[in-house]
Amino acid sequence: MLSIFKKKDVKNTRGLSYYDRVSLVHNLNDLISVTNPESVQQHNTSETIKYNGVALSEITEEKVMDMFDKPDFVIDEVETQKDYKVMFYRHTVDKFNFLLQFHFYKSHFFFVSNTISTAGPLSNADTEKLIQRLATKYGLDLKRDARKNYDIKITDKSNNIIKIIDEVSFKMNYINNSATNQQLMNNPDFFSTEPEEDTEAQIDDYI
Q: What is the pTM of this model?
């Protein structure tokens, strides 16, 4: 599949500390918060929610690589969960900078978050342009809220979600709200923590 993005021809100098900071998930509570969003405006669409032309239920790590090639960075462990992976991409189209993070658990796609910025502050005209393109795609009338921001949740017939966050940063989160993903998050071992070390026994080794 031909990507809609053109990658900047610059060296990626950002490391783990940066990507760990911008990642939306550090524990199970973070994941639940992202994938079960509330919103001022809620809309239903008869269109299937897709990202880069691919239905959310069909996104795999391989298809992400087909879309965008090799990631700029990968986090392959979150908290103590070694089966959780986040693939990051940084791309630029026109004046817009896109920071993408694709979240997977045991190869199941959970969501992609798209943080959009420009060289300066994202203007009202910029956000209006982005929102109206989305509104046209999904046949919706999307408006700003009383704060003059966009706080929007779009749901399709499969219960998949686009959550628009217009705060300090402007984000579009595409959430695969499948029954399988919900079952995985309800598993008590999903983000289980490692047992505490027996430090008393370790102290005995030194005295």
A: 0.84
